[in-house]
Amino acid sequence: MSETTSMLDKKDTAAEHEVLLDAQDVKVHFPIKRGVFFDKTVGHVFAVDGMTLQIRRGETYGLVGESGCGKSTFGRALLRLEEPTNGTVTFAGTDLSPLKGEALRTLRRHMQMVFQDPLSSLDPRQTVESLLLEGMRAHGLTKDAKAADARLRELLTAVGLPVAALRKYPHEFSGGQRQRIGIARALSVDPELIVADEPVSALDVSVQAQVINLLQDVQEQFGLTYLVIAHDLAVVRHISDRVGVMYLGSLVEEADSDGLYATPLHPYTRALMSAVPIPDPLIEDQREQIILAGDLPSPANPPSGCRFHTRCPWRQEERCDTERPQLRVVQIDGVPTSHRVACHYAEQIHSGEIERHEVSATAVDPSSLSDSPTVNTQENPGGPISAP
Ligand SMILES: Nc1ncnc2c1ncn2[C@@H]1O[C@H](COP(=O)(O)OP(=O)(O)OP(=O)(O)O)[C@@H](O)[C@H]1O
User: Fold this and answer.
1) What is the pLDDT of residue 64?
2) I need a surface site. Which of 23, 118, 160, 177 has the fewest CB within 10 A?
3) Number of the ligand 1 atom closest to the C-alpha atom of 370
4) 382 CB under 6 A from ligand 1?
């Protein structure tokens, strides 16, 4: 191997491990207001309650969890579309917390969002050309008309739309095409990170794979880093290098995608995976089924200690009820795994040292049940978390 090649390899490896986004203890607490003038704060919705994760340059990080666990709020907080109550977000070495005005606008060029429903995120009165030029103009990327025109054509080619699309309006396209426009719009300002919030869940199943493939193609073409937020385990598994599982505002487990799906270690992740149907009836009959008791507790009144203890079939009294577990690297047989797990007893549960017990639905305090859309995993093991 030549010296130049080996230097390039080293550079690639270093780039792969470079942390692009670093979120430390991010919290977003929404005040609950009451009173005639809504001027009294009577409590808080702890939508995001201590999220710590790092996304490496060039990777796809998948974030999964039940509806209402805080995924979207966290994604928005990263871009400061939602103001964090606490914590720090560092992007490419810059702490975003003190940024305001122009500095924040400049940063948004590097971090873009792709939304679930392109129809509501695209102004229906603007043509595709105007939608794509908007961000480019705002960031001073359209000074040269010829270059701007070439860039528009490049974007349309990249997302698989004809040049004639430029003169049309969003309603003239199908759902899948509209999501292509949403992706082109995010790409138009040449970002480094894209936060894709449920990018395919509003699309027909037949179109979902095309849009996922497109996201992967443009990632390679433009050297992008992704945070993909989804409730669909199949989508996340297919697209992600690493996956984080969120429960009531924070991560309960994080691992590389293959490791997480092969050996889930947190009881909640195990329950999610056990709801994934396996096409082979023999394996399906023999494997572990974990049916969670009760619904997702309300983020306005989260359980004490481990947030999952009210539904956990391996709960150990006292410690789980009172001490909130930290995310830590788990060792199996003395060997560190790729998993970080927020469970006091992950090793003992994995080895079978702690036995599983039934949790009755009444174990969940009814006053802590959520008003927000929830999953009843007892009645519907697929729930809003859908399986591959
Ligand atoms: N502006 C807000 N004010 C008060 N509560 C909010 C606000 N935005 C979100 N929430 C609440 O915060 C919690 C987390 O919501 P969020 O939308 O982030 O969850 P999610 O995991 O993305 O769910 P979904 O997939 O259904 O969007 C929910 O209970 C939600 O009702």
Assistant:
1) 95
2) 160
3) 29
4) no
153: nearest Cα among 134, 173, 133, 175: 133
Give the list of residues 6+ apart from residue 168 with CB closer than 8 angstroms, or none.
Answer: 127, 128
pLDDT digits (tens, 9 = 90+) for 17-56: 799 999 999 999 999 988 888 788 889 999 999 999 999 9
Mutating to test ligand 1, I would choose from 71, 233, 246, 268 the residue with most ligand atoms within 8 A of its C-beta, which is 71
Ligand 1 center to 281 CA (angstroms): 37
Q: How far is the CA of 73 from the centre of ligand 1 (A)?
A: 6
Q: What tokens appear for 352 in the block?
A: 């079978």
Interval 256-282: pLDDT, tens: 999 999 899 999 999 988 877 776 776
- Measured by CA distance, the residue closest to atom 12 of ligand 1 is 47
Cα–Cα distance between 159 and 305 in angstroms, integer?
Answer: 46
Per-residue b or e along 295-323, where b marks 16 or more CB atoms closer than 10 Å to that residue's CB: bbbbbbebbebbbbbbbbbbbeeeebeee
Q: Distance (Å, rounded) from C-alpha 309 to C-alpha 315? A: 6
CB contact at 8 A, 124 and 169: yes
- What is the value of ipTM here, to two decimals? 0.97
User: For ligand 1, atom 18, which residue shows the shortest CA distance?
Assistant: 70
